[in-house]
Every structure is written in C-alpha cells, then in structure tokens.
C-alpha cells in the first residue's frame, strides 16, 4: 500500500517542479527541439526555461515554409466582435494548421514580398519601406520609395524615377514584388534586390539613402528578376539578360530555344544556382538549370526539388526535399483561386493544395480559410521560411 505520509525528500520524482531544472539541462533539452513552433512553446513555459534557451537558436534545421494568406481571420466564435486589425493568417505546413499571428506592423501596410523569413512591407504611397521578421518582430528600415533612385554603375541620381507611383492605387498590379538577399541579412554587404512588376528592378544595402535601379530593356515586358552570386538575372518572354553587379555595362543576352518562346516562365534561386520554371500549355511543368559556360539551359532532375508557389504563375522558392523527410520531391505546393479548385457546382473557391507531379495527383490541404481582404492593390500570398535569425 502506498504511504501518503512519507517525508517530502522521499516523494517520487514526478512531484518535483520542472521549473527548477539546472540551466545547463534546460539548454540541452532545448537543443533537441527541431520545430520552430515547438521551440517557441518551449521558451514560453516559464522564465527559467526562457532565460536558459537561446532567443536566436542556430541548431534548428531548415523549417518548412509558412504561407501568409491575403485573408482576414473569421470572427472568433467566443467573441464575434473581436477586432482583427493586425491579425494575420498563416498556414503552418509543418504542423498542418492555420495560425493567427498578431502583427500590428502590417496595419495600413502592404505585404509585398518575402525571403528567408522576412516580409517586405510598403506603405500605400511608398513613403515607408521596411523588412519585418514576423516571429521576432525585428524591423530593418529600408530607403523610402519616394526618394530619388540612382542608376546602377552611376553615382548621380539624374536617372531617378518615381518608384512610389508603382504602388499607387491606380497601378495596383505593379505592386506585386519578389525579393532576394545576396547573403544573410545581418551581413553589412548584403544586397537586397526587389523586382516590381513589370519594369523595375531595384536594389540597396541596409543604411543606403536611396535605391539603385538596374537598367532593363526599354519597352520590354519584364517577367521576373532575381540576384544570385554577384549577378542580376532579368527574364523576358523570349530571352534572359545577365548583368554583373560590379560591371553593369557588361550584359550577357541569352535567347531561349524556339520551344520555350511564348511559354510562361519564372525564376527560382535554389541551393545550387538559378532555375527557370516553365509552365507549358499542356500542363507540363519543366525545371531548367541555368549554366554560364557555355550559356545554356538544361532540364534538371526534379526528384529532390519542391516548388512553393503563391499561385501557379508566381513561384517563390525552391528547396531540396532532403531537408525534410515528411515531404516528397517533384511536387508543387501552391494556393489558387479556381485553377484546380472547382466544386460540384462548378464555382471556383480558394484552397491551398499540393500537386504530386510524378503521380499527377492533387491533394487539397486547406479550403476557404477566411474572409478575402478587400485591399487595393491586392496582396499576394507569400511563402516564407520562419526563422529567428
């Protein structure tokens, strides 16, 4: 029979307070946590655990991307009058659930692009521009879009143009942007490149007084643009220009093969270089890897490549499936309004889904997650890899 009157020092271990674990033990346990959401929960247990674990852990493996949706959360069932100002919906692919994140920094701002865990926020008229880490709430101020813009390779701002007009309500479609970093954002040499459809490629470093424009072809529609390993890649309908950041006067022009002309294409910066994703009219999706010597595109093996797309027309990032055992390669994760998503009444609806290219199968993950935001310019859905760094 159990003795309930035993001395306190002889009580079973389960009755001891976990908050008083030695700090070195707490730190060892924290390094075993692999999910970024579990790590947040771990640090929220108590002040002792929070102080014994790192606020910016380096041990976490690459995280599955989250999708920030251009939707407002549905009213809280327990409080229908709850104000949703600043509350954003994010789909956590790791845990397969929708998250509500309070981000007051996004109020009256447009979330235009994302990269490596950072969001690019722009005020409606472009007067304020900054990067936001939605997990740490860290901000990095960038030059205003109302400032004069220099031309790459020139010290004068005589070639300035009004970037802010691209974010005017009349030119809503211009505000859909993509963004890349040359190196980690904490590096003072990090070059931040932003592509504003359909004609603008601009870049800056943290602390620069203004943006610098990368010269594109006059009167030619620019489909996509990115920066990788010291070079800008500018994608047009039938060709791609490669411009060195330190020698902008030198431009390599690569014309596509006839079978690729007129095909919808986009750029991805993967682990081993630049990829070109081609969406053929018959529904086939091919991934090409770009090679410089000699300049050519070659179809690459996609068995370990996953494409995360805001929609089928706007890929954002490619990763290697070796990072996560839970995901298979040769697949596309995306959100869309009705491309593959038509219910029995033939009415399109919004959903997030995964497309297995090898099996040619579509799996719907989330349908109609919330109330569509009525914003102009409209915001895109943004994939980003959550990070404390």
From TrEMBL:
It comes from the Eukaryota. Residues 21-53 form the F-box domain. SUPFAM superfamilies: F-box domain. It holds the Pfam family F-box. InterPro entries: F-box-like_dom_sf, F-box_BR-signaling, F-box_dom, KIB1-4_b-propeller. Residues 90-355 form the KIB1-4 beta-propeller domain. This is F-box family protein. The lineage of its organism: Eukaryota, Viridiplantae, Streptophyta, Embryophyta, Tracheophyta.
């Amino acid at each position: 029979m159990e003795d309930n009157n035993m001395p306190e020092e002889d009580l079973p271990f389960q009755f001891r307070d976990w908050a008083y674990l030695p700090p070195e033990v707490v730190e060892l346990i924290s390094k075993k946590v692999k999910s970024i959401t579990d790590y947040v929960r771990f640090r929220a247990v108590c002040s002792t655990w929070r102080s014994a674990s790192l606020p910016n852990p380096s041990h976490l493996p690459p995280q599955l991307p989250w999708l920030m949706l251009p939707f407002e959360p549905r009213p809280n069932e327990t409080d229908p009058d709850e104000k949703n100002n600043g509350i954003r919906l994010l789909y956590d692919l790791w845990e397969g659930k929708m998250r509500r994140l309070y981000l007051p920094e996004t109020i009256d701002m447009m979330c235009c692009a994302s990269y490596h865990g950072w969001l690019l926020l722009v005020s409606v008229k472009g007067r304020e521009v900054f990067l936001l880490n939605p997990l740490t709430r860290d901000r990095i101020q960038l030059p205003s879009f109302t400032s004069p813009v220099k031309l790459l390779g020139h010290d004068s701002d005589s070639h300035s143009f009004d970037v802010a007009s691209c974010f005017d309500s009349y030119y809503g479609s211009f505000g859909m942007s993509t963004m890349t970093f040359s190196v980690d954002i904490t590096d003072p040499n990090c070059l931040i490149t932003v592509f504003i459809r359909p004609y603008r490629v601009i870049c800056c470093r943290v602390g620069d007084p203004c943006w610098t424009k990368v010269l594109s072809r006059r009167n030619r529609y620019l489909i996509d643009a990115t920066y990788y390993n010291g070079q800008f890649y500018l994608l047009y309908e039938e060709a791609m220009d490669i411009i060195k950041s330190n020698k902008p006067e030198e431009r390599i022009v690569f014309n596509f093969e006839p079978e690729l002309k007129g095909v919808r294409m986009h750029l991805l910066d993967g682990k081993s270089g630049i990829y070109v994703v081609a969406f053929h009219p018959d529904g086939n999706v091919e991934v090409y890897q770009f090679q410089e010597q000699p300049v050519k595109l070659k179809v690459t093996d996609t068995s370990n490549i996953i494409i995360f797309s805001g929609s089928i027309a706007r890929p954002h990032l490619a990763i290697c499936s070796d990072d996560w055992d839970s995901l298979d390669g040769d697949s596309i994760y995306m959100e869309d309004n009705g491309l593959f998503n038509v219910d029995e009444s033939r009415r399109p609806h919004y959903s997030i889904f995964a497309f297995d290219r090898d099996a040619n199968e579509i799996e719907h993950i989330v349908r109609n997650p919330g109330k569509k935001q009525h914003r102009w310019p409209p915001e895109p859905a943004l994939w980003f890899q959550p990070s404390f760094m």
